[in-house]
Design brief:
Helices cover 43% and strands 19% of the residues. The protein has 320 residues and is α/β, with parallel strands linked by helices. The strands form three sheets. It has a six-stranded parallel beta sheet with strand order 2-1-3-4-5-12, sandwiched between helices. A five-stranded parallel beta sheet has the order 7-6-8-9-10, with helices on both faces. It has a two-stranded antiparallel sheet with strand order 11-13. α5 packs parallel to α6. The protein is elongated, with a radius of gyration of 25 Å.
Length: 320
């Protein structure tokens, strides 16, 4: 009996540190004792190469920070699905969420997450929510740069087609607003024709083909997106039009960059708005959780790319 008691005591002494080690891994998120923060990432489902690259770069950065964070990433097709995924992240215990809320109707669920103490960093989209952080390119300045570029190439008079994308909300409003405000200042005699389209090459092709049949003369096109611009350029080529001298874009699409030196008759421009900026949003979420001060809004300046400097922005590894 005494031997049994001694053996039992010895077994307990051996098991105590083992059990203690098993129970030491908590997710309090205080950054101490090897704990990791829980960070959720919400992105739209892939409807566009640029959107695909956002999810790619966000997850790539999360993996690079794997010593500091545990993460879950979701992609969704609409506001309802993203809201459900946000609820899943709250249940999981997310301490910060990096969100790309591309649809209307995300204000209430994001505000609810913030009210529950979760830090939310929005990528790209501006929404009316108290306490949300935001990382974005300068959408308004993209329009300003588009206006300056077009006037530089065709002068202060001419016919310009604006391809707005109402479904993109503040993105389209800011880009077209910057363009129109600048044109009103530097080229008030410019004639503007506004049409709606989408951020896809298929819509750019179909919509601009119709526009070409309705307008006999066009000097320049303000397109807000590189993929739309690829469709626009295809429509111009198929129609055999030679009057158009400028097509702008936005985003940072490698295929579009490679088209710039191939067409000597049209100045092909892109206001660089790289999807890799989402890495900054992930970094800011981690900074906030570490107690570091950061601005509520981080705006990344616009860079103009055309045939003169496109080679500086070629990236064979880019998914976009």
């Amino acid at each position: 009996m005494k031997k049994f008691i001694k053996l039992f005591v010895l077994l307990v002494l051996v098991m105590v540190p083992v059990l203690a080690a098993c129970g030491s891994d908590n997710t309090s998120g205080d950054g101490e004792s090897g704990d990791k923060f829980k960070v959720g990432i919400l992105a739209p489902a892939v409807t566009h190469g640029w959107v695909a690259a956002v999810a790619y770069h966000a997850e790539a950065r999360a993996k690079e920070l794997s010593d500091e964070i545990d993460y879950q990433i979701y992609t969704s097709s609409d506001a309802s699905e993203m809201t459900s995924q946000l609820d899943d992240l709250i249940t999981w215990g997310a301490e910060a969420i990096v969100a790309f809320p591309q649809w209307e109707g995300m204000e209430v669920p994001i505000q609810r997450a913030i009210d529950e103490g979760i830090e939310v960093v929005n990528f790209d989209i501006a929404i009316d929510v108290d306490g949300v952080y935001r990382v974005a390119g300068d959408n308004y300045d993209m329009g300003v740069q588009g206006a300056n570029y077009i006037v530089d190439k065709i002068g202060t008079e001419g016919d310009v087609v604006i391809l707005e994308v109402p479904s993109s909300g503040s993105v389209s409003e800011l880009r077209t607003g910057g363009f129109k405000d600048t044109i009103a200042e530097i080229a008030p005699d410019m004639t503007l024709h506004t049409y709606a389209t989408q951020f896809t090459r298929e819509d750019g092709l179909a919509d601009f083909a119709d526009i070409l049949t309705s307008l006999d003369h066009i000097d320049a096109v303000l397109s807000l997106d590189d993929e739309t611009s690829v469709g626009v350029l295809q429509a111009i080529e198929e129609a055999g039009r030679t009057d158009i001298k400028v097509v702008t874009g936005g985003g940072g699409m490698q295929e579009y960059f490679n088209m710039m030196p191939e067409n000597e008759d049209i100045w092909i421009q892109s206001a660089l708005y790289s999807p890799a900026m989402v890495k900054d949003a992930v970094d800011i979420a981690v900074k906030i959780l570490n107690g570091e001060e950061t601005d509520e809004e981080t705006v990344i300046p616009t860079t103009v790319v055309d045939r003169d400097n496109y080679e500086e922005f070629l990236d064979a590894e880019s998914p976009y």
